[in-house]
Write a structure and sequence with these properties.
Blueprint lengths: L3 H7 L4 H18 L4 E6 L1 H4 L6 E2 L5 E2 L3 H9 L2 E4 L14 E3 L2 E4 L12 E5 L7 H14 L5 H7 L5 H23 L4 E5 L23 H21 L3 E3 L35 H15 L1
Parallel strand pairs: 1-4, 1-7, 7-8, 8-9
Antiparallel strand pairs: 2-3, 5-6
Protein name: SGNH/GDSL hydrolase family protein
Keywords: Disulfide bond, Hydrolase, Signal
Organism: Actinospica durhamensis
Length: 291
């Protein structure tokens, strides 16, 4: 979920992005007539920042993100409204960066003719980028301890768990609005893939998360996914588990095995985000759910 700095850096791709946009728009036009209308909503884990080919301006959508792959596999006409940096607030309000409008309200893409909607959201609501930055900084002074855990649980309250709880009603409100706008659509809530190793203490300093913090952050991601699953079940949507099928392909794995890039990506992708292999794995999970 890139910061504004990541987004600005990516704009240096300039002319290449314009060419990619032209090609992607042409593909989208042809796909729109192929089958049922599919609308994709969500953040950078949906959009696929820095994975070729990029389009969508500062939203940094990839033609190889899981919505595009799913639409192609199932013959669905796709409108991809996802945008890097999005929170639940950007479902109903325009997304801006330094006063510049980056993306229209994502729910404006959903209409009564929409038959499939996927929603991948919540990570930015709990401050994903800030969490990674804080934990990486804390690890420098105490790589074998659990400084990040101490930071977020100081005073006896787990701040991240509280943020996840507070995000639940926001996700519920988005789902309610989707059902109102597209009452006949099948709605899928897509969870987050396995970022850190399912077992063990990580791979500091290659991935700068202190040994003792890996378990805490792993559990935090599982709690975020559990919240998304619960909200989906409570509000007429299907939850798509992308965590289980990506275990063993986390940031600590070798090139070709890892589907999530680390702080310094070794394949085209934003730091701590899915690469093309990761987006393909998420697409397979979604395709299986849609059937």
């Amino acid at each position: 979920m890139p910061t504004a700095v990541h987004v600005r850096r990516a704009t240096a791709l300039g002319g290449a992005l314009l060419l990619a946009l032209t090609a992607t728009l042409a593909a989208a036009t042809s796909a729109s007539a192929a089958g049922a209308r599919y609308v994709s909503l969500g953040d950078s884990y949906v959009a696929g920042p820095l994975i070729p080919v990029q389009s969508g301006g500062l939203c940094l959508r990839s033609s190889q993100n899981y919505p595009s792959l799913t639409a192609a596999a199932l013959g669905l006409g796709l409108t991809d409204a996802s945008c890097s940096g999005a929170t639940t607030a950007e479902m109903t309000a325009a997304q801006t960066d330094d006063g510049l409008t980056v993306n229209a309200p994502q729910l404006s893409a959903v209409t009564s003719s929409t038959s499939v909607v996927t929603l991948g959201i919540g990570g930015n609501d709990i401050g994903f980028t800030g969490i990674i930055e804080t934990c990486a900084e804390e690890s420098l002074a105490n790589p074998f301890g659990s400084p990040c855990t101490g930071h977020y649980t100081s005073g006896g309250t787990d701040q991240l768990a509280a943020d996840i709880t507070a995000t639940g009603p926001k996700v519920a409100a988005v789902l309610a609005e989707i059902h109102q706008l597209a009452p006949n659509a099948k709605v899928y809530v897509v969870g987050y893939p396995d970022i850190l190793p399912e077992h063990g203490y990580g791979c500091w300093p290659l991935v700068p998360i202190a040994f003792g913090d890996v378990g805490y952050l792993r559990q935090t991601e599982k709690e975020l996914n559990a919240m998304l699953a619960a909200e989906a079940a409570a509000h007429g949507a299907v939850y798509v588990d992308t965590y289980t099928p990506t275990v063993g392909h986390d940031v600590c794995q070798a090139v070709g095995t890892k589907w999530i890039e680390g702080l310094v990506p070794t394949s085209p992708a934003a730091p701590f985000h899915p690469n093309a292999l990761g987006e393909a794995a998420m697409a397979r999970a979604l395709e299986s759910a849609i059937g």
